[in-house]
Every structure is written in structure tokens, then in C-alpha cells.
């Protein structure tokens, strides 16, 4: 005899977990890859880990010498911790890996399909990295950043996650969107450091990534839900939006 599934928020959460592999298989595979990479980096020697992450870092020298391996490889690891739960790094991991990748990238995949979800995530990762490199170059020219910033260790999924977090504003009810947008812009400021008239480059990168994600909200193609092959188009109101006011893709 089958047990009756629980109702209410717990039941919805269980259905969402069960349906996750079906709704977002690419996101699930990516999360597994990130976790595997994190475990591997923790198992190898510190010298080898430093060499790998140093080569994949998206600093100015690497972007000049081997831009493609740096841009792609830096998105295969996350800069954070899963064990030191009392640290600020763990909070960053919850936001970038937990919310950004596990939740909002999965939402983007379910809403827009694999290609557009990947385009938003990797587009934000690459564009924010390159724009930040321009800011660093200007900062170096005017002495606002130290020369050592050219070789700084800079890798991880946070720029792509930040873009998806901003674009995922559509996933929230309308009344909650301003607060969410404020959170997306505010959380990177927790570790803000000033270098003359410019903040540290990682803060710059996160803010640029958020602006890129918010800019997508003005693109009509990203305001519409994907229509499944052979399925009917969702009913839309006069503003070109589905009749569900929040525009949230179904969770199960």
C-alpha cells in the first residue's frame, strides 16, 4: 500500500526534489561536476592544487596568455567551503552554489531550456570577467590597484551565479522582486574593500554580473517561458506575460 504523500510546503518540497533531475538534468550534472572538482582539489597536494587553480585563474596575465582555458576552467570550481559553516566563506557558498547554481540555474533551465540557461550563466561569467579585467587595467594605470593584482587568484562560479540570481528575479512574486534585487546587489558588499576610488575587483565583478542579469529582464525572449515541443503556448496577458502573475515556472 502506497503511503499518502504529505501535503503543504513539505509535500511541495519533496515533489520538487523528486522532479529536479527531470526538470534540470544539465544543472544537476554541473553541480555534481563542481562537487567532484571541490573534493579533488581538497585531496591533492597543496602545491598541485595551487598550480591548477593558478593556471585557471582569470587574472590579467592568464587572460592574456591562455584566455580560453582560464575562462572555461575557472567555472569548473567554486571558491568556498562546505564544511566551515561558521565562516563567511560558507555563506558565500550557500548564495553562489546553493541559490545561484542549484536553485536559480535549475529554474532557468526549466523555464528557458538548456541552451538559454547556459548562455545566461556562461555569458555572465565571461562578460563580467572581461569587464572586470578592463576595470583592473584602468585601475593599474592610475595606481588604484597594486601591481600584484595582475597575478591574483580569481576563479569560481560566482559571477555566473550572480547573473542568474539577478535574472531569476522573475521567479519571485512581484511584490518580492524589489527586496530580492536589493539583496542580489547588497550581498557582495559584505567583503568590500576600497582601493582608491574603486572597490576591490571581486566586488566590481559581482556588481557587473548582477547588472548583466538585471539587463536580461528587459529582453522579451527572457520574459517568456519556454514552450515544450508539441505543447500549447502559455496563455498571456496584454503585457505579453503568462497569466500567472509571478511568471514562476512550475516546481513539479
In short:
With 252 residues, the protein is mainly α.
Which helices and strands occur, and which strands form pairs?
Elements: H1 8-23, H2 25-43, H3 46-56, H4 60-65, H5 67-73, H6 88-112, H7 114-141, H8 158-167, H9 177-186, E1 194-195, E2 198-199, H10 201-216, H11 220-223
Antiparallel strand pairs: 1-2
Helix pairs in contact: 2-6, 6-7, 6-8, 7-8, 7-10, 8-10
Strand order of the biggest β-sheet: 1-2
Total count of helical runs of at least 4 residues = 11
Radius of gyration: 20 Å
**Which structural category do the helix and sheet elements fall into?**
mainly alpha
Report the strand count.
2
Give helix and strand order, one letter per element, not per position.
HHHHHHHHHEEHH
The gross shape turns out to be globular
Describe this structure in words.
With 252 residues, the chain is mainly α. 60% of the residues lie in helices and 2% in strands. A two-stranded antiparallel ribbon has the order 1-2. β1 and β2 form a beta hairpin. α7 runs antiparallel to α10 and α8 packs parallel to α10. The chain is globular, with a radius of gyration of 20 Å.
Key features of this structure:
252 residues; mainly alpha; 2 strands; disordered C terminus
